[in-house]
């Protein structure tokens, strides 16, 4: 019984998104999400439907919900974000069949609605900017945050082509380890580095929003609820002291 109680407490204390697994000790760049920044979310949504929705679905998000949350008119969504006969109230599914995804990439591209629960914004932001050319992989691309990822670098025309810079370090017992410490741009893309980073911030913001659209409201209500409980607990304690004064 006691054990179950501690398990319950632990469940509340464990953060909702766990940092990247995978054994890589790569340093992640920080990105501070903001769901209040509607311009950023709108740009992220535009990038998502244009570059990601061809392989990845976002099953649990409907076009009209996204339109309402992000302040995009339904007409704009219908004309610029839906490319087939889907309706505005339909979920953001993908026409790519699972078997085809497995056959082409070796693994079907996962649904991305809840990716923000699995990966935090720092991971997503760094991942999207860490693709590099690698002729030893099937797709010809690799990623320093997700080694041997089956996903090709779909935004390479925008970012350009990166080559990794390796550094070798020697530990206390003389063991040498080589790891990627940065990138060098070997071919320019259509965007400058700052523009590309900015676009990836917006895309990360949108991915994180999809995983929990009401996240900021939940945190705000949580703080108010704690404040409310603390206030009334204090009041109850004074009241109890008052009632029991004569008895004691
Ligand atoms: C050509 C198909 C294709 C496109 C387009 C594509 N992806 Fe992927 N993506 C994949 C595949 C395949 C995987 C699975 C990789 C693996 O597990 O090795 C993947 C994996 C991912 C992951 C990692 C999921 C995890 O397991 O943590 C993220 C995040 C992701 N994609 C984001 C995006 C975003 C954002 C876009 C749009 C810019 C995009 N992808 C476009 C094929 C694609």
Short overview:
This protein is α+β, with helices and mostly antiparallel strands and 248 residues long. The chain has 10 helices and 6 strands.
Walk me through the topology.
Layout: H1 2-13, H2 38-52, E1 58-62, H3 63-70, H4 74-80, E2 91-92, H5 98-105, H6 115-118, H7 121-128, E3 131-133, E4 141-143, H8 156-159, E5 160-170, E6 176-188, H9 193-211, H10 215-244
Antiparallel strand pairs: 1-2, 3-4, 5-6
Helix pairs in contact: 2-9, 7-9
The structure holds heme C.
Heme C is lined by residues 51-52, 54-56, 105, 107, 109-110, 112, 115, 118-119, 124, 127, 149-152, 154-155, 203.
Please explain how this structure is put together.
- The chain is of the alpha+beta class and 248 residues long.
- It folds into two domains: 18-213, Orthogonal Bundle (Cytochrome Bc1 Complex, Chain D, domain 2), CATH 1.10.760.10; 219-248.
- Helix content is 46%, strand content 15%.
- It is built from ten helices and six strands, in the order ααβααβαααββαββαα.
- It has helices at residues 2-13, 38-52, 63-70, 74-80, 98-105, 115-118, 121-128, 156-159, 193-211, 215-244, and strands spanning 58-62, 91-92, 131-133, 141-143, 160-170, 176-188.
- The strands form three sheets. A two-stranded antiparallel sheet has the order 1-2.
- Helix 2 crosses helix 9 (193-211) and helix 7 (121-128) packs across helix 9.
- The chain is extended and about 85 Å long.
- The two termini are 34 Å apart.
- The protein binds heme C (HEC).
- Heme C binds at residues 51-52, 54-56, 105, 107, 109-110, 112, 115, 118-119, 124, 127, 149-152, 154-155, 203.
- Residues 51-52, 54-56, 105, 107, 109-110, 112, 115, 118-119, 124, 127, 149-152, 154-155, 203 line the site of heme C (HEC).
């Amino acid at each position: 019984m006691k054990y179950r109680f501690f398990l319950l407490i632990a469940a509340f204390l464990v953060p909702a998104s766990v940092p990247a697994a995978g054994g890589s000790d790569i340093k992640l760049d920080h990105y501070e999400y903001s769901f209040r920044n509607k311009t950023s979310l709108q740009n992220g949504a535009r990038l998502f439907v244009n570059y990601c929705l061809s392989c990845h679905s976002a099953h649990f998000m409907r076009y009209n919900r996204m339109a309402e949350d992000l302040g995009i008119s339904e007409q704009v969504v219908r004309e610029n974000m839906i490319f087939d006969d889907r309706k505005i109230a339909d979920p953001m599914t993908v026409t790519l069949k699972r078997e085809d995804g497995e056959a082409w990439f070796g693994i079907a591209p996962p649904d991305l609605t809840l990716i923000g629960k699995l990966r935090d914004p720092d991971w997503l932001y760094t991942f999207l900017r860490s693709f590099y050319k690698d002729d030893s992989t099937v797709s010809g691309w690799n990623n320093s945050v997700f080694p041997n990822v089956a996903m090709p670098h779909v935004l390479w025309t925008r970012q350009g082509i990166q080559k990794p810079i390796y550094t070798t370090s020697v530990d206390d017992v003389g063991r040498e380890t080589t790891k990627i410490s940065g990138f060098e741009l070997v071919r320019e893309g259509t965007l400058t580095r700052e523009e590309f980073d900015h676009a990836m911030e917006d895309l990360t913001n949108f991915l994180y929003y999809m995983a929990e659209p009401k996240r900021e409201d939940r945190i705000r209500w949580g703080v108010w609820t704690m404040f409310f409980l603390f206030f009334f607990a204090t009041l109850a304690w004074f009241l109890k002291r008052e009632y029991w004064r004569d008895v004691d």
